Each structure stands twice: as C-alpha cells, then as structure tokens.
Amino acid sequence: MKKVVKDLQFKILIEQDEDGWYVASVPELPGCYTQGKTVEQVRKRIREAIQLILESEPQLKKEKLRHPKATPQFFGVEDISIRHA
C-alpha cells in the first residue's frame, strides 16, 4: 500500500528578543517554540520542533492531517502607543 504524503502548513511567529536572538513559536501547537542566533537557524529549528511535536503527539498529528492548512488565519501585527502619565 502506498503511503499518502501531505504538505502540512503552520503559521510561525518570529520575534527578536532584547539580546538579538530570534524566537519562533507555532500558535496552533502548544509548547512549540525555539530560538536561534539567525533567522535561518530559527527557521530550521522550528521545523525540527514541529516534527518532534507531531511525532510525540499522535492526536495533534491526526487532527492536522485532517486539516492541513495553517490555522489560525493570520491577520496582522501592529505597534500601538498608549499615553501614560
């Protein structure tokens, strides 16, 4: 029997912390985050983290295979200022 292969999509958030490190997380996978010194390094590491979580959490993997598109839908990022006295 031939195995069906699906491309699973995930939204990742990448931020840069105060020390210059990049921190990546996957909102739809609880506990899925990592860090790296470069954007390329953090992208590689977050892929590895996603794979590890899917391997260790069969129910999450099963659900993602049913709905392979990325969720939640990305809306946007904004900086806002609040006046404070």
TrEMBL record:
One Pfam assignment: HicB_lk_antitox
Task: Indicate the segments forming the HicB-like antitoxin of toxin-antitoxin system domain, all copies.
Answer: 10-57
Name of this protein: HicB-like antitoxin of toxin-antitoxin system domain-containing protein
Q: Which organism is it from?
A: Candidatus Chisholmbacteria bacterium RIFCSPHIGHO2_01_FULL_49_18
Upper classification of the organism:
Bacteria, Candidatus Chisholmiibacteriota
